[in-house]
Amino acid sequence: MATETPLKGFIPELDYEKEMNRWSHVFKFLSEPEPEVGHTPRNEVWRKNKSVLWHYPAKQKKYEIPLFFVYSLFNKPYILDIAPKVSVIEGLTNSGYEVYLLDWGSPGYEDKKIGLDTYIDKYLRTAVKRAIRHSEADEITLVGYCLGGTIASIYASIAEEPIKNLIVATVPIDFKPFVGPDKWAEGMRNGDMNIDHFIDVYGVVPPQVVDGMFRAIGAPIYFTNYTMLLSRAHDQRYVNKWRRMNRWTLDQVPFAGEAYRQLANNLFKENKLVKGELMIGNKKADLKNIKANLFVVSGSRDNLILEEQSKPIMDLVSSEDKTYFVVETGHVGLALSGLFAKIVDQWVSTRSNQL
Amino acid sequence: MSDKISFDPYESLHKLSLLWEKQLNEFIYLWTNNKEFVKMTNLGTEIHSRYLETFKKNQEALASVLNLPTKSDVTNVANLTIQAEEKMEALEEQMWELQDSVKSQSRDIESVIEVSKEIIKLTKQLKNELVQTKKELANSKDLHAELQEMKFELLKLNNFKEEFETLRGLIERGNRAEIELAGAGSSK
């Protein structure tokens, strides 16, 4: 007959199975290649320079008007198709939408003169035209995420193409509110900090600088993602999700110099978009020209783009049908969880001419 | 047993690391959030840019002497490719416009053909109606001739009737005369 020692229950026992799972997953994470992303079947519609227009066919087409995704210039757009079952694009194609995605690509030194105006006028406009022709639709829905939302809004304000709906998520419109140190913003605005010479020399802003900039604004020291992984490494699903997210976070793209300069000077420094003074080619990008149905999504836990930066678009456009929606999520969580697909579907389904 | 506490220090490590991270970031924030830091960063960026610029100039000069292609040369070639792409794009769009105009012309032609078909159908119908009318006209002519004949015969009949009436009158008169003559003879 076994007798219980007085220390039993006082010293925590080791859960061997859990620990085996934890460390085998950690070992896999260290030794295995990076996880696959971009699972949804797609076709190339158009290609220019490094940019590609992708078409994701609907599983069973239910809506006449296709969705056209414009992603940020800072990161790669595969966050929208990160993994099966949680992919935003997969969710929308399963719901019956034809989806188009403009992948800006990674600019090289030769693209240093590409500015926001060139991206909008020569890339985005052409891609939208191609998508409309490819889909044989009469109208299109623009969906912009993060800086892609800013670009989509600027384009929508000067577009001659038939844009029925404009959806923007976690979008910076008003660049006055700033999440980083306020003296940095002040320095940029009063000229104490000037990046023009730096851009001229580099041509394209290296991805390390882009990454460093975001780190500096948000959290210069960041290692809790690793301790979080370690504490939940016994859960295979979490490890897979973490690895995909980690891959995307580290997969930064360079930023075309001229576009960076315009972003810093015209948008951040002079806040021209809100003032209605931004020029794209010879056209004034005034948001009041937007008459398309508007849907704005913000994350209440977004620590990169504040709600105050997105909300002003509601008063600046001329759209009669406009909705502002706040989700309890962070900047990336909206796309990473696939929640964005459901939110978009709920709003756009009644505005996409059901077949 | 479900209420057993197992060895899991990782959760505590994570909580502790969150605390450290937050404190370190707050320290950096306070340390950098001032004008002097911004000006120093600007100065550092400027010095770095100038150094890099000089280095690039020297490299370009050396590459030029050695006849080596540099990234600027690659840029020029890439720009030519992009220009060619844009020209192709413009051509493709022109072809679309042509296709569209050909399609719309085909649609017009199709509608003209449809209208022509309708006209031909109508003409045929009119022709048939004309033939029918001609036939009816011919029939009506025959009818007219017959009517004329009938009229003539009716006239004849009328004449005959008149003659007959005259004859009847004459006969009646003759009968009356005979009666009168017979009356006169008996009274004598």
UniProtKB/TrEMBL annotation, chain A:
<keyword id="KW-0012">Acyltransferase</keyword>
<dbReference type="InterPro" id="IPR029058">
    <property type="entry name" value="AB_hydrolase_fold"/>
</dbReference>
<dbReference type="GO" id="GO:0016746">
    <property type="term" value="F:acyltransferase activity"/>
</dbReference>
<feature type="domain" description="AB hydrolase-1">
    <location>
        <begin position="88"/>
        <end position="332"/>
    </location>
</feature>
<dbReference type="Pfam" id="PF00561">
    <property type="entry name" value="Abhydrolase_1"/>
</dbReference>
<dbReference type="InterPro" id="IPR051321">
    <property type="entry name" value="PHA/PHB_synthase"/>
</dbReference>
<protein>
    <submittedName>
        <fullName>Poly(3-hydroxyalkanoate) polymerase subunit PhaC</fullName>
        <ecNumber>2.3.1.-</ecNumber>
    </submittedName>
</protein>
<keyword id="KW-0808">Transferase</keyword>
<dbReference type="InterPro" id="IPR000073">
    <property type="entry name" value="AB_hydrolase_1"/>
</dbReference>
UniProtKB/TrEMBL annotation, chain B:
<keyword id="KW-0175">Coiled coil</keyword>
<feature type="coiled-coil region">
    <location>
        <begin position="74"/>
        <end position="150"/>
    </location>
</feature>
<protein>
    <recommendedName>
        <fullName>Polyhydroxyalkanoate biosynthesis repressor PhaR</fullName>
    </recommendedName>
</protein>
